[in-house]
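Researcher: We plan to redesign the surface later, but first we want a full-length starting point. Tokens attached.
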């Protein structure tokens, strides 16, 4: 990023398969790289986007190192972080991977965005998404809110349905209600036959409103912050889930939890893990770690710098190891509210030469980080506000790539990290246990190659996005080919 007269200038380095594009330059009625990219960026930034490109390609031509830049207003740039608790690219790419898999099956999908994404970077996977991306307007002024409501409620039937649910809607902010009405209008316009909301928070509420006004059925995927956090409204969670055609839990832990909190609602809860495009995560068997090796033990961790990730425990574990003579280096990727506190902890313990805070990384950079690391650490805990991870996608990515995983027994992690088989599982909030596990690896006492192979086998068996997409499509299909809709809720991110 550079600045151009006070405006952030963003450089994008692109690679794309041109087979399904009519060249680079935007053309009316044709799918072009510039058109797809401009649309995606405009959706993200919520402002018009103009691209400057270093070179152009013709129809069907691929590119390996296309360079593009754009200038972004300071306001749009400042708004990008949002309030998500996840690493931005992780939230984005998980959803993009799911959409791509569904499209590959021939489904007709549309994407409706309620909030701008938390990721400022463009990922090549976005260019492969053929689904239409639509912005559901969010009114900020009372006059705009009223206009959006009246424009969306033109049918007498809609007005009557709206009146019937008004006592419930009175519990919600006006902009959420207006977005629900607008979504109903757009879904009917686009002949949508099924709605799917990611997160039972904002997206779930908007989907509930749209369904109540149109009769279009909906499903909802629940993750973590939308069901565990202290801010969750239990009445709305039960309302959204009970009226949904199906509630999808991303782990058995979440499934069991929902079974308790939704008791008596009649909600149908089904387990379906998040999935990976396995072709993007090539397996690499790790080099065995020997006690006689001259190099330090290379440990990496990836995630938002927030309490539930437990990175303070990782720092303390490094202190224990260094004090006992273990040569160790840690690279920690991510950003968040805990960065200052973690920096202070690292400096206070004299570990600045042992632990590097890398900031947020792209998906490709995360894969490079995993490739150069001996161990991936996920020392997750339950935060004081009740927030916990559902099942961190980056753990699945590490397992797919072959990087041995050390994780804590929190929420869904024991379902994939089988101690001694697919990784090492530890009690949460116990830096001494974490230090002991890493010491065992550093001293060559752990067969990390066997753990790596076991992890990859599990990922191939249970987390292939193509298989996951087929199941989801079956759950969401009606009597004939369905036009589906994905509703993106950035504020509900875990």
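Model: Full-length starting sequence:
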């Amino acid at each position: 990023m550079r600045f151009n007269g006070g405006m952030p200038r963003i450089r994008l380095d692109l690679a794309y398969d041109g087979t399904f594009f009519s060249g680079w330059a935007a053309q009316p009625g044709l799918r072009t790289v510039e058109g797809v990219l401009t649309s995606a960026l405009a959706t993200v930034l919520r402002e018009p986007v103009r691209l400057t490109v270093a070179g152009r390609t013709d129809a069907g031509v691929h590119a390996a190192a296309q360079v593009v830049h754009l200038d972004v207003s300071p306001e749009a740039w400042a708004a990008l972080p949002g309030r998500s608790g996840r690493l931005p690219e992780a939230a984005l790419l998980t959803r993009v991977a799911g959409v791509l898999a569904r499209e590959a099956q021939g489904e007709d999908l549309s994407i409706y965005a309620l909030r701008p994404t938390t990721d400022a970077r463009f990922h090549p996977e976005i260019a492969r998404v053929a689904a239409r991306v639509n912005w559901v307007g969010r009114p900020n002024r009372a006059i705009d809110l009223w206009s959006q409501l009246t424009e969306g409620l033109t049918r007498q039937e809609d007005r009557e349905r709206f009146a019937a649910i008004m006592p419930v809607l009175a519990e919600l902010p006006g902009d959420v209600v207006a977005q629900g009405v607008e979504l109903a209008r757009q879904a009917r316009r686009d002949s949508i036959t099924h709605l799917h909301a990611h997160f039972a928070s904002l997206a779930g509420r908007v989907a509930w409103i749209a369904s109540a006004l149109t009769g279009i059925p909906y499903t909802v995927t629940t993750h973590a912050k939308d069901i565990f956090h202290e801010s969750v409204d239990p009445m709305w969670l039960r309302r959204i889930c009970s009226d949904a055609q199906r509630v999808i839990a991303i782990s058995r832990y979440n499934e069991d939890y929902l079974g308790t909190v939704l008791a008596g609602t009649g909600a149908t809860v089904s387990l379906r893990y998040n999935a990976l495009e396995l072709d993007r995560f090539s397996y690499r068997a790790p080099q065995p770690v020997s006690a006689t090796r001259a190099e330090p033990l290379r440990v990496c961790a990836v995630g938002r710098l927030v309490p539930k990730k437990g990175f303070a425990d990782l720092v303390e574990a490094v202190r224990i190891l260094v004090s006992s003579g273990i040569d160790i280096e840690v690279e920690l990727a991510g950003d968040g509210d805990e960065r200052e506190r973690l920096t202070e902890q690292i400096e206070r313990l004299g570990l600045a030469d042992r632990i590097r805070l890398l900031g947020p990384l792209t998906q490709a950079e995360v894969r490079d980080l995993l490739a150069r690391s001996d161990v991936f650490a996920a020392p997750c805990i339950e935060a004081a506000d009740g927030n916990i991870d559902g099942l961190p996608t980056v753990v699945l990515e590490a397992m797919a790539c072959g990087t041995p995983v050390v994780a804590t027994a929190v929420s869904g992690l024991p379902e994939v990290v089988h101690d001694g088989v697919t990784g090492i599982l530890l009690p949460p909030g116990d830096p001494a246990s974490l230090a002991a596990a890493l010491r065992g690896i550093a001293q060559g006492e752990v067969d990390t190659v066997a753990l790596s192979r076991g992890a990859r086998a599990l990922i191939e068996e249970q987390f292939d996005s193509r298989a996951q997409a087929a199941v989801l499509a079956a759950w969401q299909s009606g009597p004939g080919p369905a036009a589906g809709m994905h509703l993106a809720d950035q504020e509900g991110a875990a």
